[in-house]
Amino acid sequence: MEWIQQLINGISLGSIYALIALGYTMVYGIIKLINFAHGDVFMIGAFTGFYAIVGFNLGIFPALLISMAVCSLLGIVIERVAYRRLRNSSRITALITAIGVSLFIEYTVIRFRGAQPESYPKILLPNVSFDFFGAKVSSQAIMILFISLILMILLQIVVHRTKIGKAMRAVSIDQETSMLMGINVDRTISATFAIGSALAGAAGVIFGVYFTRIEPLMGLIPGLKAFVAAVLGGIGIIPGAMVGGLILGMAETFVSAIGFSDWRDAAAFLILILILIFKPTGIFGKNIREKV
Questions:
Q1: Which of 61, 72, 215, 282 could pair with 194 as two cysteines, CB 3.0-4.6 Å apart?
Q2: Contact in structure between 36 and 98 (CB atoms under 8 Å)
């Protein structure tokens, strides 16, 4: 029964990583950029949800929608201000810029609200547990799974069934040809940042409800772990980010369960090292030959 409990905990944690990882993998799939500011968008989402709940007495779902909207706008601003002019620059230039944007967001938040942590109210959801084959499933875990599943399904519908989704897939394959076919590449890339950032905002609120404590530097480690999840699944591949996040969450939980809780962060990065050594393209990735 203990292992079933840990499996449920791992899926809950992995769902958060998966939502963040989707933003990494979508942006990389479109413009081949690792947006290391994405973890800080996740942090902004957590604080937006907190202030919506505490300051305006909103429920969890209205706060979630507000957080997604704010982070979506933030993603568009980041893309237009920081990344748009660097599309034809070297990858190292874009990477350094992404790190700079990350630090700018973190210390802007610290400048205006201080570095002290905040705590989400514990009465957002009824404190109810359900018995599942002898394991207790909390209302928070059910909420995480429900919201994550709905958002992932909606993302698949957007990518595969809508006009903007088709444009995103076309731009990810060939930007120049997409432009010749009449696709507005700038608008498509902005939409990609908006969707990925909205998912990170949702993950921030879920994280706050589940773990309660939030602070301005909270995006660093979950952001890096979500990047590991994206690489594990195959960066640039949306189903890969989902699967990679779930695997990483379960791996961390089981490492803690066997008595090595101090090594749970190290386990995530050990997985990254192993996947880069033995299968650099990730679980769902394929080797693509490039002409030289």
A1: 72
A2: yes
User: Residues, the chain, total?
Assistant: 292
Contacts of 118 (CB under 8 A, 6+ apart): 47, 50, 213, 214, 215
Q: Is the dihedral of CA 19, 20, 21, 27 positive or negative?
A: positive
Looking at the domain that runs over 2-278, which CATH code has it been given? 1.10.3470
Residue partners of 84: CB distance under 8 A and separation at least 6: 186, 189
Alpha carbons 245 and 224: distance in angstroms, whole number: 12
Backbone angles phi, psi at 118, to 5 degrees: -125, 165
φ/ψ of 87, rounded to 5, equals: -60, -35
Cβ pair 45, 70 in contact under 8 A? yes
Cα gap 84→79, rounded to integer Å: 6
- What tens digit of pLDDT does each residue of 8-54 get? 888 889 999 999 999 999 999 898 888 999 999 999 999 999 999 99
Report the Cα 240 to chain-centroid distance in Å. Answer: 13
Q: Using pLDDT thresholds of 50, 70 and 90, give the confidence band for residue 101.
A: very high
Mean pLDDT in residue range 248-265: 86
| DSSP per residue, 95-114 | HHHHHHHHHHHHHHHHHHH-
Count of alpha carbons within 13 angstroms of residue 250, beta-carbon side? 12
- Please, what is the end-to-end C-alpha distance for the chain in angstroms? 55
Q: What is the pLDDT of residues 182-203, one digit of tens each?
A: 999 999 999 999 999 999 999 9
d(CA 197, CA 176): 25
- CA 214, 218, 223: angle at the middle one, nearest 5? 135
pTM: 0.92
